[in-house]
What we know:
This protein is of the alpha/beta class.
Amino acid sequence: MKVLSVSSEVFPLIKTGGLADVAGALPIALKRFGVETKTLMPGYPAVMKVIRDPVVRLRFDDLLGEPATVLEVHHEGLDILVLDAPGYYDRPGGPYLDQTGKDYPDNWRRFAALSLAGAEIAAGLMPGWRPDIVHTHDWQAAMTSVYMRYYPTPEVPSVLTVHNIAFQGQFGAEILPGLRLPPHAYSTESIEYYNNIGFLKGGLKTAHAVTTVSPSYAQEILEAEFGMGLEGVIASRIDSLHGIVNGIDADIWNPATDPVVHTHYTATSLKNRAENRASIADFFGLHHDSAPILCIISRLTWQKGMDLIAASADEIVEMGAKLAILGSGDAALEGSLLAAAARHPGRIGVSIGYNEPMSHLMQAGCDAIVIPSRFEPCGLTQLYGLRYGCIPIVARTGGLNDTVIDANHAALAAKVATGIQFSPVTKSGLLHAIRRALHLYTDQKVWTQLQKQGMKSDVSWEKSAERYAALYSSLAPKGK
Ligand code: ADP
Ligand code: GLC
């Protein structure tokens, strides 16, 4: 089976969050199920800089107003189709924001162009290769199935995966002519959304199947609290809605071989973590004492509950824990976390920025990872925590709920607990969870057992890749 995946981020070429990890790992996991994936992505400067020996596969003289070329490259086990369109992507900022942190005003055109290129490839425009299935990710790629509906193309089934329904790609109706869709595309059964245009909304209406990244989140987005206005649209697709939990690339994330981890270990040599822990203490300026190090590796946003961390920092230190925080995001939250670090030297360390190697070392050295998200479609850092023996302390929501087993009495006795869950997601809920964790930490036998159980849990892509493969097969024309 041949799949065209369309994604605005793919690890290791470009990453701002979990989408990149998934778009980079799923094609590799799918290989053993006979699925061959080519991934279409934008040619951002970071991508153009690292790709080697590109082969030109397709040229557009005018892709919604700019010339563009599709280049095929093989990169670390992935087959990538880079959409090289300097007018859209050759910019000094990030994938979505300019250097001052503002959305690019032409984001609609940049990602409609990506989607249109995907639809053209689905239609067989690229010589020698046509997909059996198109798999799009998030609003940036969601217009692919919209273009596929209105362009006279052979029917190719499409799957849209929603990684976070909070990001919807909504724009004013005045962009309609620029999208070059027929006027009747502006309908409630397609891209029209409260007199505006919704890219994710259009994808939700036009894709043959819709998936999201955990079973719990698939339920949650049917409700107004989590659906963010799209709950009705999701409900209209309930028969084609699937919750498939993310896995992780267990080769990249392996504490026994991870090249950035100072001292390697397995579930039977957890003592080796001590040296990594000491490196973390050095990096974050924390005291070298027996108090546990709780870490945070996150976008610093309201979704991720980072305001609760800022508000609870003094109490967390008083309870006897240390905090190592790596992240970037809202300026106000960065400021309050830095202020907390200034109040508690040696107890709280904050590093603002994006640091992939440090994110690995923290999982390999810290005692627990705190994830107080208000909503979390799947979450990957708790999965990395499980794999690295860094106990996840998580809000009971979305994928966090589906992947961490709370250390209640029954689960501890049955030896199946892997972390701590808490609800409601409030300051007192969070502090209660941390108190529970510190209590468990006082009994190192229990703590080690939790670590080992976490390290045993299956966080690989194996089962979920099989589910995607089964979904593709159920949609593909018979005989594929
Ligand atoms: P989201 O995609 O919503 O941000 P996920 O938990 O799915 O949340 O994925 C976040 C990914 O980004 C993980 O791989 C995590 O390790 C990584 N990450 C987040 N913040 C940082 C940071 N400051 N430095 C390095 N990696 C980070
Ligand atoms: C989104 C979600 C996150 C999920 C990731 C990958 O960024 O916020 O929960 O893990 O996508 O699917």
